[in-house]
């Protein structure tokens, strides 16, 4: 029942975001849509921002769990971008609200997982210090997150495939080159 309730609240938030900004949505509205009481909401979530974080974590992060390798990172990136595009009102309204940090947190976390898998798979990566690996991953995470935030700001005008192709061109072979330089 807990997962059903959380999912119902998540769906209510996503539906409501299609008609009004996040900052204007109240817990009272969400529980009315779900025929729940406010206490039920607060049993599961501290506030609407916690619900938002739960949505991002459960819906998107798990979707790339099998795409964290050098051969599959583009597929993982495509899944992330498709999630953002499929949940356009959720992501745009998150970006345009006080919850912008939640969107950036989500993107940073999901991309860190993706790129950590890639780095750890590359030959000679084990010779790098943890700090060097972390720096490389963070660099690419922030670059990719910046591109995605700009894409969201621009109303997602470029296709998912085009963005993945651009990023692929910029990254192809670069992980191995960096590892060689740093070891």
What does this 3D model show about the protein?
This protein is mainly alpha-helical. It has a single domain (about 50-180), classed as Orthogonal Bundle (Tetracycline Repressor, domain 2), CATH 1.10.357.10. The protein is built from ten helices and no strands. The protein has helices at about 1-15, 25-35, 40-45, 50-60, 75-85, 90-95, 100-120, 130-155, 160-170, 175-180. Helix 5 (about 75-85) packs antiparallel against helix 7 (about 100-120) and helix 7 (about 100-120) packs across helix 8. The protein starts with a helix and ends with a helix.
Question: Percent range for helical residues?
Answer: over 70%
Q: Topology as H/E string? A: HHHHHHHHHH
Mean pLDDT: 87
- What is the CATH class name? Mainly Alpha
Q: In what range is the share of β-strand residues?
A: under 5%
CATH homologous superfamily assignment: Tetracycline Repressor, domain 2
Secondary structure class reads: mainly alpha
Kindly state the number of beta strands. Answer: 0
The geometry reads as: elongated
Ranges where pLDDT stays below 50 over 5 or more residues in a row are none
Largest pleated sheet:
none
Q: How many structural domains can be distinguished in the coordinates?
A: 1
Given the structure, what is the number of helices?
10
Key words describing this protein structure:
single chain; 183 residues; mainly alpha; Tetracycline Repressor, domain 2; 10 helices
Topology record:
Elements: H1 2-17, H2 27-34, H3 38-44, H4 48-61, H5 73-86, H6 88-95, H7 100-121, H8 130-153, H9 160-171, H10 174-182
């Amino acid at each position: 029942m807990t997962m059903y309730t959380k999912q119902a609240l998540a769906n209510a938030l996503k539906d409501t975001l299609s008609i009004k900004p996040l900052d204007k949505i109240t817990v009272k509205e969400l529980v009315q849509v779900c025929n729940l009481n406010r206490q039920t909401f607060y049993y599961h979530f501290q506030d609407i921002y916690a619900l938002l974080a739960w949505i991002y974590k459960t819906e998107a992060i798990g979707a790339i769990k099998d795409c964290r390798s050098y051969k599959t990172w583009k597929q993982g990136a495509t899944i992330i971008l498709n999630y953002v595009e499929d949940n356009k009102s959720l992501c745009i309204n998150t970006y345009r609200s006080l919850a912008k940090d939640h969107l950036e947190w989500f993107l940073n976390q999901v991309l860190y997982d993706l790129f950590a898998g890639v780095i750890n798979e590359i030959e000679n990566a084990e010779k790098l210090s943890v700090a060097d690996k972390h720096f490389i991953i963070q660099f690419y995470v922030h670059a990719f997150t910046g591109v995605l935030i700009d894409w969201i700001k621009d109303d997602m005008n470029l296709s998912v495939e085009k963005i993945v192709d651009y990023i692929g061109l910029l990254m192809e072979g670069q992980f191995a080159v960096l590892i060689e330089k740093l070891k």
